[in-house]
Protein backbone atom coordinates (compact mmCIF):
# COMPACT_ATOMS: atom_id res chain seq x y z
CA UNK A 1 0.00 0.00 0.00
CA UNK A 2 1.31 3.42 -0.95
CA UNK A 3 1.62 5.81 2.02
CA UNK A 4 1.91 9.55 1.49
CA UNK A 5 5.10 11.09 2.88
CA UNK A 6 4.81 14.72 4.02
CA UNK A 7 7.32 17.11 2.53
CA UNK A 8 9.73 19.07 4.70
CA UNK A 9 8.09 22.29 3.50
CA UNK A 10 4.66 21.10 4.68
CA UNK A 11 6.12 20.17 8.07
CA UNK A 12 7.78 23.60 8.28
CA UNK A 13 4.42 25.26 7.62
CA UNK A 14 2.77 23.12 10.30
CA UNK A 15 5.45 23.92 12.89
CA UNK A 16 5.27 27.64 12.06
CA UNK A 17 1.49 27.67 12.52
CA UNK A 18 1.83 25.85 15.85
CA UNK A 19 4.42 28.38 17.05
CA UNK A 20 2.61 31.55 15.93
CA UNK A 21 -1.01 30.37 16.32
CA UNK A 22 -1.98 32.61 13.41
CA UNK A 23 -1.94 31.91 9.67
CA UNK A 24 -0.72 35.37 8.72
CA UNK A 25 2.16 35.45 11.19
CA UNK A 26 3.10 31.85 10.36
CA UNK A 27 3.20 32.70 6.65
CA UNK A 28 5.33 35.78 7.33
CA UNK A 29 7.76 33.71 9.40
CA UNK A 30 7.90 31.15 6.58
CA UNK A 31 8.49 33.84 3.93
CA UNK A 32 5.45 32.77 1.90
CA UNK A 33 1.98 34.18 1.30
CA UNK A 34 -0.84 33.18 3.64
CA UNK A 35 -2.63 31.44 0.76
CA UNK A 36 0.49 29.36 0.00
CA UNK A 37 0.82 28.26 3.61
CA UNK A 38 -2.88 27.47 3.92
CA UNK A 39 -2.86 25.48 0.69
CA UNK A 40 0.19 23.52 1.80
CA UNK A 41 -1.49 22.55 5.08
CA UNK A 42 -4.75 21.62 3.35
CA UNK A 43 -2.83 19.37 0.95
CA UNK A 44 -1.06 17.77 3.91
CA UNK A 45 -4.34 16.99 5.70
CA UNK A 46 -6.04 15.79 2.49
CA UNK A 47 -3.24 13.44 1.51
CA UNK A 48 -2.94 12.08 5.07
CA UNK A 49 -6.72 11.82 5.42
CA UNK A 50 -6.74 13.44 8.88
CA UNK A 51 -7.55 16.78 10.50
CA UNK A 52 -4.53 18.37 12.19
CA UNK A 53 -5.82 21.92 12.70
CA UNK A 54 -9.29 23.14 13.63
CA UNK A 55 -9.88 26.48 11.94
CA UNK A 56 -12.25 29.14 13.27
CA UNK A 57 -12.57 32.84 12.52
CA UNK A 58 -10.94 33.82 15.79
CA UNK A 59 -8.29 31.23 16.56
CA UNK A 60 -6.32 28.20 15.48
CA UNK A 61 -6.63 25.01 17.52
CA UNK A 62 -4.55 21.90 16.96
CA UNK A 63 -6.16 18.49 17.39
CA UNK A 64 -4.45 15.98 19.71
CA UNK A 65 -3.12 14.21 16.63
CA UNK A 66 -1.98 17.57 15.27
CA UNK A 67 0.04 18.25 18.41
CA UNK A 68 1.64 14.79 18.18
CA UNK A 69 2.53 15.39 14.53
CA UNK A 70 4.08 18.77 15.41
CA UNK A 71 6.28 17.15 18.06
CA UNK A 72 7.46 14.59 15.53
CA UNK A 73 7.89 17.29 12.86
CA UNK A 74 10.29 19.19 15.13
CA UNK A 75 12.52 16.13 15.32
CA UNK A 76 12.33 15.43 11.58
CA UNK A 77 13.20 19.02 10.67
CA UNK A 78 16.06 19.06 13.15
CA UNK A 79 17.45 15.82 11.69
CA UNK A 80 17.18 17.24 8.16
CA UNK A 81 18.98 20.38 9.28
CA UNK A 82 21.73 18.37 10.95
CA UNK A 83 22.19 16.47 7.70
CA UNK A 84 22.89 19.78 5.99
CA UNK A 85 25.14 20.78 8.90
CA UNK A 86 27.14 17.58 8.50
CA UNK A 87 27.89 18.49 4.90
CA UNK A 88 28.58 22.11 5.82
CA UNK A 89 30.93 21.15 8.64
CA UNK A 90 33.21 19.36 6.17
CA UNK A 91 33.97 22.67 4.47
CA UNK A 92 35.75 25.73 5.86
CA UNK A 93 34.92 26.29 9.57
CA UNK A 94 33.03 29.39 10.67
CA UNK A 95 31.85 29.95 7.14
CA UNK A 96 28.17 30.30 6.30
CA UNK A 97 25.18 30.77 8.60
CA UNK A 98 25.02 30.29 12.37
CA UNK A 99 21.84 31.17 14.24
CA UNK A 100 22.70 32.10 17.82
CA UNK A 101 20.26 32.99 20.58
CA UNK A 102 21.63 35.31 23.27
CA UNK A 103 20.00 36.18 26.59
CA UNK A 104 19.15 39.87 27.28
CA UNK A 105 21.59 40.22 30.19
CA UNK A 106 24.49 39.35 27.88
CA UNK A 107 23.56 40.60 24.40
CA UNK A 108 23.89 44.40 24.83
CA UNK A 109 27.16 44.13 26.77
CA UNK A 110 29.18 41.33 25.18
CA UNK A 111 28.10 41.56 21.53
CA UNK A 112 29.25 45.16 20.83
CA UNK A 113 32.66 44.17 22.15
CA UNK A 114 32.86 41.01 20.09
CA UNK A 115 31.03 41.50 16.80
CA UNK A 116 33.25 44.10 15.06
CA UNK A 117 36.35 41.92 15.41
CA UNK A 118 34.43 38.78 14.42
CA UNK A 119 33.13 40.50 11.26
CA UNK A 120 36.65 41.55 10.35
CA UNK A 121 38.37 38.24 11.03
CA UNK A 122 35.56 35.94 9.82
CA UNK A 123 34.06 37.77 6.83
CA UNK A 124 32.39 34.61 5.50
CA UNK A 125 30.51 33.96 8.73
CA UNK A 126 26.88 35.07 8.74
CA UNK A 127 25.89 35.24 12.40
CA UNK A 128 22.14 35.65 12.84
CA UNK A 129 21.35 36.78 16.39
CA UNK A 130 18.14 36.39 18.36
CA UNK A 131 17.73 37.88 21.83
CA UNK A 132 15.45 35.89 24.13
CA UNK A 133 15.34 34.74 27.79
CA UNK A 134 17.06 31.51 28.76
CA UNK A 135 14.00 29.21 28.69
CA UNK A 136 12.89 30.40 25.26
CA UNK A 137 16.47 30.28 23.96
CA UNK A 138 16.85 26.65 25.01
CA UNK A 139 13.49 25.80 23.45
CA UNK A 140 14.72 27.41 20.22
CA UNK A 141 17.87 25.31 20.40
CA UNK A 142 16.14 21.98 20.96
CA UNK A 143 13.49 22.73 18.33
CA UNK A 144 16.12 23.64 15.76
CA UNK A 145 15.36 27.37 15.50
CA UNK A 146 18.81 28.15 16.93
CA UNK A 147 22.14 26.42 16.31
CA UNK A 148 23.73 27.54 19.58
CA UNK A 149 22.92 29.67 22.62
CA UNK A 150 25.02 32.17 24.54
CA UNK A 151 23.70 32.21 28.10
CA UNK A 152 24.63 32.24 31.79
CA UNK A 153 24.95 29.11 33.88
CA UNK A 154 23.81 27.42 36.02
CA UNK A 155 20.61 26.80 34.05
CA UNK A 156 18.77 23.61 33.13
CA UNK A 157 19.83 23.17 29.49
CA UNK A 158 19.01 19.52 28.77
CA UNK A 159 21.23 17.43 26.49
CA UNK A 160 23.88 19.94 25.41
CA UNK A 161 27.59 20.46 25.08
CA UNK A 162 29.19 23.67 26.28
CA UNK A 163 32.26 25.86 26.22
CA UNK A 164 32.85 28.39 28.98
CA UNK A 165 33.51 31.92 27.74
CA UNK A 166 34.20 33.70 31.04
CA UNK A 167 33.14 34.09 34.66
CA UNK A 168 31.09 37.23 35.22
CA UNK A 169 31.22 38.63 38.76
CA UNK A 170 28.13 40.08 40.46
CA UNK A 171 28.05 43.58 41.97
CA UNK A 172 25.60 45.42 44.20
CA UNK A 173 24.54 48.79 42.77
CA UNK A 174 23.07 51.61 44.87
CA UNK A 175 22.83 55.45 44.94
CA UNK A 176 26.04 57.36 45.65
CA UNK A 177 24.58 59.05 48.73
CA UNK A 178 23.63 55.75 50.39
CA UNK A 179 24.87 56.02 54.01
CA UNK A 180 25.68 52.29 54.11
CA UNK A 181 28.23 52.52 51.31
CA UNK A 182 31.03 50.08 52.31
CA UNK A 183 34.65 50.72 51.29
CA UNK A 184 35.29 47.53 49.32
CA UNK A 185 32.85 44.62 49.19
CA UNK A 186 29.25 44.10 50.23
CA UNK A 187 28.37 40.97 52.15
CA UNK A 188 24.89 39.48 51.57
CA UNK A 189 23.92 40.29 55.17
CA UNK A 190 24.12 44.03 54.42
CA UNK A 191 21.52 43.87 51.65
CA UNK A 192 18.17 45.33 52.70
CA UNK A 193 15.59 42.90 51.36
CA UNK A 194 12.95 45.64 51.35
CA UNK A 195 14.99 47.75 48.90
CA UNK A 196 16.24 45.02 46.56
CA UNK A 197 15.10 45.37 42.94
CA UNK A 198 15.58 42.46 40.56
CA UNK A 199 14.62 41.41 37.06
CA UNK A 200 11.19 39.87 36.65
CA UNK A 201 10.67 36.12 36.35
CA UNK A 202 12.14 34.59 33.23
CA UNK A 203 15.58 36.15 33.62
CA UNK A 204 18.15 33.73 35.03
CA UNK A 205 20.26 36.59 36.46
CA UNK A 206 17.60 36.96 39.15
CA UNK A 207 18.17 33.36 40.27
CA UNK A 208 21.96 33.71 40.06
CA UNK A 209 21.86 36.82 42.26
CA UNK A 210 19.56 35.27 44.87
CA UNK A 211 21.59 32.06 44.93
CA UNK A 212 24.81 33.99 45.50
CA UNK A 213 23.29 35.73 48.52
CA UNK A 214 22.02 32.48 50.06
CA UNK A 215 19.30 34.32 51.97
CA UNK A 216 15.87 32.68 51.43
CA UNK A 217 14.04 35.76 52.71
CA UNK A 218 15.39 37.81 49.80
CA UNK A 219 13.40 35.72 47.34
CA UNK A 220 10.23 36.43 49.28
CA UNK A 221 10.84 40.15 49.83
CA UNK A 222 12.69 41.40 46.74
CA UNK A 223 10.72 43.43 44.22
CA UNK A 224 11.00 41.58 40.90
CA UNK A 225 9.91 44.23 38.47
CA UNK A 226 12.67 45.18 36.05
CA UNK A 227 12.37 44.19 32.40
CA UNK A 228 16.02 45.03 31.69
CA UNK A 229 19.22 45.93 33.53
CA UNK A 230 19.02 49.46 32.12
CA UNK A 231 15.55 49.84 33.67
CA UNK A 232 16.84 48.66 37.05
CA UNK A 233 19.72 51.16 36.92
CA UNK A 234 17.28 54.01 36.24
CA UNK A 235 15.14 52.91 39.20
CA UNK A 236 18.18 52.84 41.49
CA UNK A 237 19.28 56.23 40.16
CA UNK A 238 15.86 57.59 41.16
CA UNK A 239 16.29 56.38 44.73
CA UNK A 240 13.86 53.47 44.53
CA UNK A 241 16.25 50.87 45.92
CA UNK A 242 19.33 48.85 45.05
CA UNK A 243 20.01 46.05 42.60
CA UNK A 244 22.62 43.56 41.40
CA UNK A 245 24.53 43.91 38.15
CA UNK A 246 26.99 41.68 36.30
CA UNK A 247 30.53 42.93 35.78
CA UNK A 248 30.19 42.87 31.99
CA UNK A 249 27.40 45.45 32.22
CA UNK A 250 29.59 47.69 34.36
CA UNK A 251 32.50 47.31 31.94
CA UNK A 252 30.15 48.30 29.11
CA UNK A 253 29.34 51.57 30.91
CA UNK A 254 25.81 50.92 32.12
CA UNK A 255 26.32 53.34 35.03
CA UNK A 256 27.66 56.18 32.86
CA UNK A 257 25.70 59.38 33.39
CA UNK A 258 24.07 58.14 36.59
CA UNK A 259 24.59 58.71 40.30
CA UNK A 260 24.82 54.97 40.92
CA UNK A 261 27.91 53.18 42.18
CA UNK A 262 28.63 49.46 42.49
CA UNK A 263 30.62 47.29 44.87
CA UNK A 264 31.49 43.58 44.48
CA UNK A 265 29.21 41.11 46.21
CA UNK A 266 31.22 39.21 48.81
CA UNK A 267 30.27 35.58 48.23
CA UNK A 268 32.02 32.43 47.03
CA UNK A 269 29.32 32.06 44.37
CA UNK A 270 29.06 35.72 43.35
CA UNK A 271 29.48 35.09 39.65
CA UNK A 272 27.76 33.49 36.70
CA UNK A 273 29.34 31.29 34.05
CA UNK A 274 28.97 32.73 30.56
CA UNK A 275 28.89 29.79 28.16
CA UNK A 276 28.13 28.81 24.59
CA UNK A 277 25.96 25.69 24.41
CA UNK A 278 24.72 23.56 21.50
CA UNK A 279 22.88 20.28 20.97
CA UNK A 280 24.82 17.21 22.05
CA UNK A 281 26.40 15.27 19.17
CA UNK A 282 25.86 18.14 16.74
CA UNK A 283 27.96 17.64 13.58
CA UNK A 284 29.07 21.26 14.00
CA UNK A 285 30.51 20.79 17.50
CA UNK A 286 34.06 21.65 16.45
CA UNK A 287 32.80 24.77 14.70
CA UNK A 288 31.00 25.90 17.84
CA UNK A 289 34.13 25.28 19.91
CA UNK A 290 36.00 27.50 17.49
CA UNK A 291 33.28 30.15 17.82
CA UNK A 292 33.66 29.96 21.61
CA UNK A 293 37.38 30.62 21.22
CA UNK A 294 36.58 33.68 19.14
CA UNK A 295 34.17 34.89 21.83
CA UNK A 296 36.77 34.39 24.53
CA UNK A 297 39.31 36.39 22.53
CA UNK A 298 36.88 39.29 22.36
Notes on the structure:
This protein is an alpha/beta fold and 298 residues long. The chain has two domains: 8-87, Winged helix-like DNA-binding domain superfamily/Winged helix DNA-binding domain (Arc Repressor Mutant, subunit A, Orthogonal Bundle), CATH 1.10.10; 92-298, D-Maltodextrin-Binding Protein, domain 2 (3-Layer(aba) Sandwich). 43% of the residues lie in helices and 23% in strands. The chain contains eleven helices and eleven strands. It has helices at residues 8-20, 23-30, 34-48, 64-89, 107-121, 134-142, 204-213, 216-221, 229-237, 247-251, 285-297, and strands at residues 53-55, 60-62, 96-102, 125-131, 148-153, 160-175, 196-199, 223-226, 242-246, 260-264, 271-279. The strands form two sheets. Strands 3, 4, 5, 6, 7, 8, 9, 10 and 11 form a nine-stranded mixed sheet that branches. It has a two-stranded antiparallel ribbon with strand order 1-2. The radius of gyration is 23 Å and the shape is globular. The model has no long low-confidence stretch (mean pLDDT 88).
